[in-house]
Protein 1
Amino acid sequence: MEIIIVGAGGHGKVVLDVLRAAGQYKPVGFVDADTSLAGTTVGDLPVVGPVNTLPRLRQQRVKRAIIAIGDNRTRVRYAVLLREQGFELVNAIHPAASISPSAILGVNIVVAAQAAICTEARIADSVIVNTGAIVDHECVIAEGVHVAPKVCLAGRVRVGACAFVGIGANVIQCMSVGEYATIGAGAVVIQDVPAYSTAVGVPARIIKTGGPDQKD
Ligand SMILES: CC(C)(COP(=O)(O)OP(=O)(O)OC[C@H]1O[C@@H](n2cnc3c(N)ncnc32)[C@H](O)[C@@H]1OP(=O)(O)O)[C@@H](O)C(=O)NCCC(=O)NCCS
């Protein structure tokens, strides 16, 4: 089953690796907004051009796609665009990731090597659970979240839409991280983090607050 990868940057290369390791889909190329990449190759695959090449790919009967863009808002926006163009969005799950049979996964999700998604966790569309991250039992992860490498979310943590949990951060059980919030690398979150804010350190403290106007 042929698949196109949207985004030929660093995360795109990771997603290509994951897809190849999983073996379910056959990646046939990349699409990338950076027109200077058109005609080059990434991981032996052609970068066919920017997103306006997508209709041609659909005509060539490429039906499936995955969005491999690290920026959360952009990834969610592209998911809408690709769906409108009739693509089926699929998941890239590394065979060395552990996914509980009782976990519920949406689409356009990347789960990298050594990540663990535990009992009854719920992972919405366009989420990245990066290398070695743990999403423990009954966590609820909303659309467009990025859980960076080696993050540990304890049981029943909730993470709001498009939030970013930085590399190596830990969040204790039952905490909420608000939508569009950012958790700094290595933070230990022991209190709820409001939407649109940035929390860093051990224990995590809020260093920035924002509002919905920051959305775009
Ligand atoms: C939290 C983060 C987003 C803040 O970036 P920023 O908004 O540009 O903030 P600044 O760099 O201006 O730092 C602001 C203050 O917070 C401190 N700070 C920033 N990140 C911190 C962190 N992770 N832990 C502790 N303190 C941190 C800075 O030292 C600075 O302190 P000061 O005001 O006393 O000098 C960033 O530092 C970070 O941790 N990013 C995570 C990156 C990551 O996980 N990448 C993996 C991708 S897969």
Protein 2
Amino acid sequence: MKLQDLSNKVISGNRRALAKAITLIESTLDSDRTEAHTLMKEILPHAGKALRIGISGIPGVGKSSFIEVLGLELIKKGHKVAVLAVDPSSPISGGSILGDKTRMEELSQNDSAFIRPSPTTGSLGGVAAKTRESIYLCEANGYDIVLIETVGVGQSEYEVASMVDLFMVLMVPNAGDELQGIKKGIIELSDMLIINKADGDTLVLAENARTQYQNALHIIKKDKFWSPLVLTCSSLQKTGLPKIIDSIFDFQNESKKSGFFEDNRKRQIQRWLKSLFQSELDHYIKNDLELKKKLTSSETKVVNGEISASQGAKEMLNYLLNH
Ligand SMILES: Nc1nc2c(ncn2[C@@H]2O[C@H](COP(=O)(O)OP(=O)(O)OP(=O)(O)O)[C@@H](O)[C@H]2O)c(=O)[nH]1
Ligand SMILES: [Mg+2]
């Protein structure tokens, strides 16, 4: 398929073209990279329209099961739902694809849903960059909700939080240690905490956990328009969803009204640009042995105490500019 055809088809809502386009942007071949850039340029004016929601949580907390029921509910309300994954835990198997095929059985067969597992190549930074581009492609293809699942391990949840409009953390009700074992930074990033598995034997525990978290969280206020919410849910029994969905759209309305929504997207793209620029620079330096040697010589002088770090930095900049 010609590139122009591909981008036209992506924009016109063709699902196979979307899958193909994502495969193209995930490719690491140099020739594909050039095509991918052209494609992104074409689709960019059509991107940006979805509500982007990050869903994080430790393995087994029920993210995929939650996405299955949430996605189907959203589709019932007339939305189109794309699901992407950023999963650094298993670069070889491609994250939890096998689990997801069975956990998101109904959603994966729905015409209004598109599910794409995590790209398998490259470092987390690379995977995250591709996920950003995949979000744009899904938006250009007509999806108005993009859900991004990530396992709450290492950097991935920070990466995901930095590319979404709304960030959710799923938790399980654990007796006694509700406030432990979960990174404080992540709680501060979240707009909603969802206590999943609020059913059967753990129903009461989940309610107790909800109260405790809500009390601990009401002090945090995000940009004055939103206090993080704590809600319970059972993905198994499909309970708690209407409140979660209402809160999602409340958040969207409030953050748009307050200006946070737009500001946040601008900040995110600025940060992304900076990190892309940094990797372009690293790539440039790595491929120029002479320049690399000069920069290393400054570094050695700093390490040996011959010049100060700030002198060293200035010297390095000069080498780069006069190169
Ligand atoms: N009782 C109960 N079990 C649940 C619920 N949601 C998920 N489970 C079970 O929890 C297990 C893990 O669910 P997943 O949806 O695969 O969890 P996940 O967070 O996506 O897991 P990873 O992708 O491996 O990180 C499965 O056995 C589910 O059936 C729930 O609301 N209640
Ligand atoms: Mg999963």
Protein 3
Amino acid sequence: MTEQLHLQPRLQLLADLVPQDARLADIGTDHGYLPVYLLQKGRIASAIAADIGQAPLDHARRTAQQYGVGDGLRFLCCDGLRGIGPEDADTVVIAGMGGETIVHILSQAPWTKAGSTLLLLQPMTKQEDLRRWLNENGYAQSAERLVRDKDYLYPVFTVFGGEQPPLSVGEIYGGVDIEVDPLAGEYLDQRIRRLSQAEAGLLKGSGSENRQRAEELGKIRKILMERRADL
Ligand SMILES: C[S@@+](CC[C@H](N)C(=O)[O-])C[C@H]1O[C@@H](n2cnc3c(N)ncnc32)[C@H](O)[C@@H]1O
């Protein structure tokens, strides 16, 4: 009997957010666990496992074989969404990468904001830069969910193409509509700690630019503290 793949909490949340019968593209698939799990569960109609590296794709192929879904997956070695279009996928997952890499990938694929493609984005870093970029470049964040994995909280953005009113500084740095999430308080605490550390680092340096930036971060930190207090 074929083994059942189990996912870590971060990937499980992403899997739970993929709609039934989706045509999935998993960009930066690495081990391939997400599409393999969804195929095993009969949750998706098709899957593309894409990665910029040949070694990660080989890993994904081995995962697919091990868990008996080798035929259901198309493997693509490419930078981001190059060679993938709306005819191939209605749901795109870009997870486990820096916010700047996710921006790079989406900016090369403007079709992702033209139709009804669902984007599930999970940045490891620069979350605020990604929120700001999406907001300023024709994407609308419809929800944000949080998950704890190995003592760290990760946000997962649900995004479609479309205009959205400008996000506030509190939303850019603290998340969009996270109040409904049971982990919202802890997430805001995490963000506040990060800002304090960045401020302290800047204040150790010399020069008025550093002081000015530290002051700006201090103002943002206070906004997040107010948001935290209102939960
Ligand atoms: C840390 S792994 C994340 C794997 C998986 N998505 C997850 O969330 O667990 C990042 C993967 O993204 C791939 N990657 C980085 N930049 C990429 C790009 N521009 N296009 C496609 N894949 C990329 C890397 O080769 C690596 O396999």
Protein 4
Amino acid sequence: MFDTHCHFDDERFDDDRESAWKRAEEAGVGAAVIPAISPDRWDRTLSCTREGARFAALGVHPQCLPAIDDRAIRDGLDRIASLRREHAWRVVAVGEVGFDHTIDLALASPERQERVFAWHAEVARALELPLIVHVLRAHDAALRALSRVKLPSPAGVIHSYSGPAELVGAYEKLGFYLSFAGSVTRPKARRPIAAARVVSPERLLIETDAPDQTPTGVAPSVTRCEPAHLALVANALATALGEDEPSLRARTTRNARALFKVGTVL
Ligand SMILES: [Zn+2]
């Protein structure tokens, strides 16, 4: 399996990162993308990659916008091309970036979020890398903004998709894949399941969003989500879609490898 969104650079993995990865491998996870959240942490993100298995995306998360000014964002984005040259296989996407209307909109207005997104899209196009996009309670604003900028091809992924099934087609038309996280494991997961059902077969991805979004089904004592929990997401999604689990695992892995252009592990 391919965990397309795992914040494996988070401090909550500092004590056991490699043993957590071993558990992930034992659960059938062969690869992951680690999306960065802020330029001052990009070196940390890059240091958590591992050749052939763990890759990085570089960007500025909308939830970090209140703490960073536009100048620092521009300076950061200016470094991506050289970091990509220097780190070659490590950098496979631009992000995490996006649209979030649950944060302090006085410091990160929708206009500012759109502006920052447009800068990321420019870098992604120049480097021919897909975008990792976060959209939370902002689907209308996101779709408006996404249709106003030139996107790379493929455009990227809408991670942990939380929107209605009706908007899936609009995102696909813009060139996006859609990724699903632990929300599909909830007993009353109607909305994400309805959305997953209408995603084109070759556009479906899975993720943990670890260390957040711990799926239903782990022991109650476990509060931190980790990449091994991807098996629970795959199982819930396969059941909901009426698909064999091995087939869903293989399909979503193929899709992720096509999007991030990383080779097949033998
Ligand atoms: Zn994230």
